[in-house]
Amino acid sequence: MERRWKEECMDFDKIGKYLCFILRHHPEKIGITLDEHGWADVDELLAGISERCPLCREQLEEIVRTDAKSRYSFSADGQLIRCNQGHSIPVDVELEQVLPPEFLWHGTAERFLPAIFQEGLRRMSRLYVHLSATPEIAQTVGARHGKPVVLRVQTGKMAEDGYAFYRSVNGVWLTEAVPAKYLEEMK
Length: 187
Prior knowledge:
The protein is α+β, with helices and mostly antiparallel strands. The chain folds into two domains: 2-83, RNA 2'-phosphotransferase, Tpt1/KptA family, N-terminal domain (Arc Repressor Mutant, subunit A, Orthogonal Bundle); 104-185, ADP-ribosylation fold, CATH 3.20.170.30. The protein has helices spanning 2-8, 12-25, 42-49, 57-66, 113-119, 135-143, 155-160; strands at 40-41, 72-74, 80-83, 104-109, 121-122, 129-131, 148-153, 166-167, 173-175, 177-178, 183-185. A hairpin with a 5-residue loop joins strand 2 and strand 3 (80-83). Helix 2 crosses helix 4.
């Protein structure tokens, strides 16, 4: 086990996934707390993660800078870090409500379609339903869960009907739920 972690500490992608696990879901696993806006003290994060994977400030900055999904942000003074969205713990990442485009997309696995078309998209263990700006991004997201399916979401109509939308710093669109009547499967 110890050897495996030493090898994974050389892989910034794997460290990034571990950081997401900590900053989105379980900060207590390394003995840190998040403030009400999801921020963690950088020094405390580095100290807490060091038992599993020694990481210096420069390496953390490189992980944040090169993350393909732009999952993290530093505070203006660089003393705090947080994930931009995707939390399962109650935090307010200070998103402003914005008017969405006419359509957004959601990637999922084919096996989930019966439940989705019965219940709509639900946030499940997260604070929001995540929507993509393009069908291509949604396809990639769906592929992570099995045979991918892309759903087109009538977000313009939803907004007209009073649903709130937010856009995270990294371009992910968020809403609390999407009723099935606003969904159609892309073929």
